[in-house]
Amino acid sequence: MPVRATMPEVRRSVHGTPGIGRHRSRSDDPMPSSGAGGESVSAIVVAERLTKVFKSRYGGLTTVAVDDVSFAVNEGESFGIVGESGSGKTTTARMMLGLISPSAGRVEVDGIDVWEGEREERQTLPKIIQAVFQDPFSSMNPRMRIGRIVTEGLRGLASDERRTEAERLLEMVGLSKRSVDVFPRQLSGGQRQRVAIARALAMEPRIIVADEPVSSLDVSLRGQILNLLAELGNEYGLTTVMVSHDLGVVRQFCSRVIVMSEGQVVEEGDPDRILREPEHSYTKNLVAAIPRLPGEQ
Predict the structure, then answer these.
(1) Both 2 and 117 in a single domain?
(2) Are the beta carbons of 110 and 26 closer than 8 angstroms?
(3) Is residue 297 packed enough to be buried (19+ CB in 10 Å), middle (13-18) or exposed (0-12)?
(4) Sheet bearing 62-74, strands edge to edge
(5) Phi, psi dihedrals of residue 89, rounded to the nearest 5°
(6) pTM above the 0.85 mark?
(7) Are 258 and 271 in a shared domain?
(8) In this structure, are 157 and 27 located in the same domain?
(9) Number of domains in the chain
């Protein structure tokens, strides 16, 4: 049976939020809440009964992609959403990002209702939450140099300031300053994914949603990108939502995970516990699909 993802007890962030770059448009303070001993605690993403129904344009057929999903993501947490293709994980992430609207339910990001909030508040969301997708090349203008791509979302910068900022961001993700002058086609898949991460960081967000960020990369590169995301999260106090079909990837990266199947949450908890003792048959299949070395349990 599917289970409703319970709202976890909100805990204090283990990282500060010092900022990624020059400034922040919003206050660096997390959403306040009373905790034991008067400590400030926060949940930076709250989804309540999210539902998404897609209707066929040629008839009355409908597909329920996400069905009554609830969860909360704590400030500074690495949170995983895992499931196979068609599970609803990416649709859930896109509703969180404001890319598609829910049919029912709501999602708040840093206290802002992504779809029903005041327009002025919703316009600040790109400075709070950014995404890194599976195929960065498809979202890059092939005629635009990397320096321009990385700083595309920034406004009011002179050309020399834009170049300096692009060089700084590229160095943050392990690329050479010289990369500002090349085109996307001149980079490898791993390098393009680093550019995508730099572009997301340019907005100085508090949340990164990484949707299958390593699934299209060679095995030798996957660990590098995951390590980069983890290092950036630790250094800048980022909250990261990792969306993946691979429970093994989520285990390496996340402290808490929900498992989705057919649009519903079927299991949730600590990824190590889920790997050791999966409860739902669907989760057991995901665990069985994780590649293992000979003799590894």
Answers:
(1) yes
(2) yes
(3) exposed
(4) 62-74, 43-55, 104-109, 112-113
(5) -65, -45
(6) no
(7) yes
(8) no
(9) 2
